[in-house]
Amino acid sequence: MNKIRWLNFGFQIGAVILALLFTTVVLLMAGAPPLQAYLYIIKGALSSITNISNVLSAWAPLLLTTSGVLITFAAGLWNIGIEGQIMVGAIFTTGALRLLQNSTVPSGWILLIGFLAGMAGGALWAALAGVLKTFGGVNEIFGGLGLNFVATAFALYLIIGPWKRPGIASTSGTLMFPDKLWLPTLPKVQFSVWALGLGILVVILVYFLLRGTHFGLRLKAIGKNSKAALLMGVPTWQYVMFAFLLCGVFAGLAGAIQVTSVYHRLTPAISSGYGFLGLMVAMLINYQAIWAAPVALFFAALNIGGIQLPIVLKLDSSLSGVLQGILVLFVLLVEGARQRLFRKR
Amino acid sequence: MNVELKDIQKTFGMVHANGGISLKIPAGTIQGILGENGAGKSTLMKILSGFIRPDQGEILLDGHTVSIHSPADAIRLGVGMLHQDPLDFPPLRVIENFILGSAGGLLPDQGAVLRDFKKLAGQFGFSLDPEAYVDSLTVGERQQLEILRLIWLGASVMIFDEPTTGISTAQKMKLFAALCLLAEQGKTVLFVSHKLDDVEGLCSRVAVLRQGYLVGEAKQPYSTKKLVEMMFGKTISVGGRKPCRADKVTVNLSKLRVEDYRLKVRDVNLDVHCGEVIGLAGMEGSGQGLFLRAVGGMTHTVGGKILIDGRDLTGRSYQTFKKHGVAFLPAARLEEGLVPGLTLTEHFILAEEAKGFFINWDKGRLLAQERIKEFDVRGIPANTVESLSGGNQQRALLALLRDSLNLLLLEHPTRGLDIESVIYIWNKLKERCQKGTAILFVSSDLEEILQYSDQVLVFFSGKVTPPLDASTLTTEKLGELIGGKGWPESTDEGKLA
Fold first, then answer.
1. Within this chain, do residues B346 and B489 fall inside the same structural domain, yes or no?
2. Boundaries of domain holding B257
3. Do A213 and B350 touch (CB under 8 A)?
4. C-alpha B452: how far from chain center
């Protein structure tokens, strides 16, 4: 048993090395010094308090989206629509904040209402994908993809339309909220303990939900064999809907955090791709919630670390994305190869 | 074209689907291939038509050994097959389907093809609109399209797999006329069926398969008795039965109607008593499976009523039926019954009424241990279900059932199991009957039906017999009924139309 575990571990390390090698080849082809590039990524993520706090504030929403898709993956669903769910969550939060910012309501309450609105928005968008899936027979991948476009278009419309900045309509975003509606951060840095606390809380919640509850077990049963689950008395479509809703709530929270603690306004790219990144993290950790936090942190660090690359090495910052994508691909590839190898024996 | 099969062998895992079959079929004949489900008919025909490659054996066409690697190879050599479920493209037009399999270039000459199509259709007396969409056609018309297509592609050996299932009598007559015409033109027709009447009426010679082997050949005129005997084997003496039927009626069906796209089961009236076992016999796809699922609330009924323990549950979902003490055990254990990837413990927790929000794992493991012991499942609580053998999976499924049930619905409860498991499982089922549970089960094993049922319903093309007393039935009589013989002249011929 132990031997097999070590062997599996060896395979995973092998996948990481392969991914690094492959990225190195890509870098060489682009004419960049690979070692230096890696060094800059590490520096960009860890060399200063500002950088570290940036990594932590990227970690929070990524934790939320990863937790969300862990739930939908457990139910056998590919919730591609999570990007749109973040977006609509952010729109709802922005809407609530705009509505109340000039009222006499204390700012703490406004923020709380903004978060609740974000959760509702994310849940609404996820519910649409869920209804399309359970009642309309539309695969959640297609439904989600379509809803993502609708959400983006809706955000754009709001930004250059009804919610445009006084005088200028710019796709760069709405007018910034006053400081009092910013999620409280540590002094001098951008990082909010509240946001991170929420992210960590949710990941722990999801871990226990999937591991120790009837709800989690039933979701898993549906994900692995919905016909059998139905025969065993699990109300399948209700659970599928609930998985969507829960994921939507977490995605909406991520959107609310993006609005209140990162951008302080609504922008067309408010999701920062954390939805798709969350899907990648979930795949990389083979849907085991226990690994969600460290791997999400690693991905957040890659994201932030890559920001410097264009300035210092004239490389595009999407190199981090390349590395992340290649990592996931190689881990999946090596896992597939491993299973094949073992089955043959 | 003369067809010769030499020592064809094919195994799937442990099962001998074909165990060395040799058969000669001269050109210009209609050869019947008769046998019950799983006898190896379809495998043999799929080998001849290139869908499956044999493990061993030779195929000779007109005396030359040929190697057929794919259906495309087969059609190039002149062998075409009509499958039971038409392999066409419903969203396309008739004429587009017609052209699809042809070797033609990038731009087929539509005009010429259309002329060919109309000429062929006229020859066989088929009236098909080339511009109609295939999904608007009946099963019979789709067959006609397929026949024309294969002839146009140059097939001179044509295989028909259960072609009379799901078509009207008029279409059947047309089909038979077409088959006779094909034989007259010198083509070789292979007619695969389990329907004795059809085979006797159409085929000039018959080969009977049983459990993967060729057990006999016959020529016209046939003796039905002999054919049945060959199909099902000699009657084996039936052991003692232990009826435990009580007076109380637990399930009442009145004028129940169920249908799918090819079958209509009409007006079944049935009282099921507590502790009673009712066997549903028939060739696969004769309506018994549909009926069984309808009684469990898994298929919508079209008419009639289902009363479970006095309550009208017609049209309700399986969940409601389950609440009222109905359980269903599917034949496909790993596909429908169990959840691969989950452990036995997790299954027992899932099947129990959930108490509280968190799982009590210790209690779950204990429960699993208890049931595993009680049902003699060879495994431990932490085993995933797919690691168990078929017999143990079936035992696990039984162990998962809740205690008090009104009605237990079983699909092929012992299919693929060793004899020890079969006896064990039926003992467990009988224990339930003694506690008052009624059982309805589908099986293609006639001896199982006769041995364990109190009453038998036989299904044939959607028609159902009234309940027959199992103690007075013989395998022979049952075999005839399953093959469509000895039914009262029915007044419902129009049913299939």
1. yes
2. 249-496
3. no
4. 21
CA trace torsion A276, A282, A283, A287 (10° rounding): -150
Closest-CA residue to B366 (of B348, B350, B354, B353):
B348
Distance set, CA A211 to CA A59, A233, A292, B346 (Å): 23, 20, 14, 11
User: Which residues of chain B does A215 touch, with a Cβ-Cβ cutoff of 8 Å?
Assistant: 357
Residue B361: list chain A partners with CB under 8 A: 212
* Candidates A211, A224, A225, partner chain B, best to mutate (most B CBs within 10 A): A225
Nearest CA in chain A to B346: A217
The answer to whether residues B201 and B254 belong to one domain is no
Residue B457 belongs to what H/E stretch?
A: strand B455-460
Count Cβ atoms within 10 A of the Cβ of residue B108 and give its class: 0-12 exposed, 13-18 middle, 19 or more buried: middle
**Which of B319, B335, B358 minimises the CB distance to A235?**
B319
Residue ranges per structural domain of chain A = 1-32+316-338, 49-314
Q: Is residue B277 part of a domain?
A: yes
Cα separation, B156 vs B81, in Å, equals 11
- Cβ within 8 Å, pair A228-B319: no
Those of residues 348-377 in B touching chain A at CB distance below 8 A are 349-351, 354, 356-359, 361
CATH topology of domain A49-314: ABC transporter involved in vitamin B12 uptake, BtuC (1.10.3470)
- Chain B residue nearest residue A229, CA to CA: B339
**Residue pLDDT tens, chain B, 497 long:** 899 999 999 887 666 788 899 999 999 999 999 987 668 888 899 999 998 899 999 999 999 999 999 988 999 999 999 987 777 888 888 888 888 877 666 677 788 888 999 999 998 888 889 898 888 887 788 888 999 999 998 899 999 988 887 677 778 888 999 999 999 999 999 999 878 888 998 999 999 998 888 998 999 888 888 888 888 775 444 445 667 788 888 899 999 999 887 788 988 999 999 999 999 998 877 889 999 999 999 888 998 999 998 889 998 988 899 989 999 999 888 888 999 999 999 999 998 887 888 999 999 999 999 999 988 888 889 888 888 877 788 889 999 988 789 999 999 888 777 667 778 888 889 888 988 899 999 988 888 888 899 999 999 888 899 999 988 888 888 888 888 887 876 544 433 33
**Is B129 domain-assigned?**
yes
Asked if A214 and B339 come within 8 Å (Cβ–Cβ), the reply is no
CA neighbor of B449 nearest in space, from B423, B475, B420, B431: B475
Q: Which residues in chain A touch residue B358, judged by CB atoms under 8 angstroms apart? A: 212-214
Contact B319 A215 (CB under 8 A): no
Structure tokens belonging to residue A13: 């390390």
Examine the domain organization and report whether B68 and B115 are in the same domain.
yes
Of B337, B350, B358, the CB nearest to A212: B358
Query: In this structure, are B168 and B278 located in the same domain?
Result: no
**How far B319 CA lies from chain A's nearest CA (Å)?**
6
Residues B398 and B269 in one domain: yes
**Residue B352 falls inside a structural domain:** yes
User: How much is the ipTM here?
Assistant: 0.84
Using the Cβ of B412 and the Cβ atoms of chain A, whether some distance falls under 8 Å is answered with no
Q: Check whether residue B287 and residue B189 sit in a common domain.
A: no
Tokens matching residue B361: 């794992």
Interchain CB distance below 8 Å, B339 and A230: no
Give the number of other Cβ atoms within 10 Å of residue A270's Cβ. 25
Give CA torsion, residues B412, B418, B423, B427, to 10 deg. -60
What are the structure tokens assigned to B210, written together? 């049983």
Domain count, chain B: 2
Q: Which of A214, A232, A234 is facing B357, going by the closest CB pair?
A: A214
Contact B322 A233 (CB under 8 A): yes
Q: In this structure, what CATH number is given to the domain that contains residue B456?
A: 3.40.50.300
Chain A contact for B319 (CB, 8 A cutoff): yes
Are both B220 and B253 inside the same structural domain? no
